[in-house]
Amino acid sequence: MFETERHVMVARQIEGRGVKTPRVLEAMRRVPRHEFVEKSSWDDVYEDHPMGIGLGQTISQPYIVALMTEALDPQPGQRVLEIGTGSGYQTAVLAELYDEVYSIERHGALSEQAGLILKRLGYDQVHLRVGDGTKGWPEAAPFDAIIVTAGGPKMPAPLMNQLNVDHGRLLAPIGMVHPDSSAKKDEDVGQELVLMHRTPEGIKRHSYGDVRFVPLIGEHAW
After folding, report:
1. Which of 80, 99, 100, 111 has its CB surrounded by the most CB atoms within 10 Å?
2. pTM for the full model?
3. The domain 3-211: what is its CATH number?
4. Any catalytic annotation for residue 60?
5. Which residues contact 88 (CB under 8 A, 6 or more apart)?
6. Which residues, including other chains, have CB under 8 Å from residue 68's CB and lie 6 or more apart?
7. CA distance 88 to 69
8. Model confidence over 165-191: pLDDT tens digits?
9. Which candidate in 60, 87, 103, 111 is catalytic?
10. Where are the domains of the chain?
């Protein structure tokens, strides 16, 4: 079901906009996005836009999911930490590419629902937790990659500390103004998608441009 729609989505919205990694493209073709939203939203579930999932949270547009996944440069045998499980869609894409996926969500209801869907789809290597994602998952660290799917004012220090020192990659939307602020105009609340990459020469920073995510809430964020 929806297999044709997924292939069209990848060709037009993702590969057509510059995402080229074959393993990432195949993961986007395989994961059934419609399973992570209500049936009432299925008519346009494979269009390139975010969708509400309740509790003020969203499922990101497919292009952004693919872009962020490619930026992590996933390799066989690696482990990844996701901050913000949400619907579980990005989690499933990661599970197509990583041996182990750890994911933290602050809303228990979303985590429970995502867990049921992921289990039904056979993603047994996914570990879920409810809590403050800005603190990371220290007992499972270090991680080869960490992805943050909500926007905060800076990179949470605990996440940097839980990153593998050998080419670990941390990706997060960063913005100095709270995205829900009513005191600022839209142009003032943009976020920048930033990758911090550990290398033998030190930490390298790369920007993937402007984005807009829901707020990252926690001790080391808003």
Report:
1. 80
2. 0.94
3. 3.40.50.150
4. yes
5. 36, 103, 113, 114, 115, 117, 118
6. 60, 90, 147, 149, 171, 193, 208
7. 14
8. 999 999 999 997 776 665 454 455 589
9. 60
10. 3-211
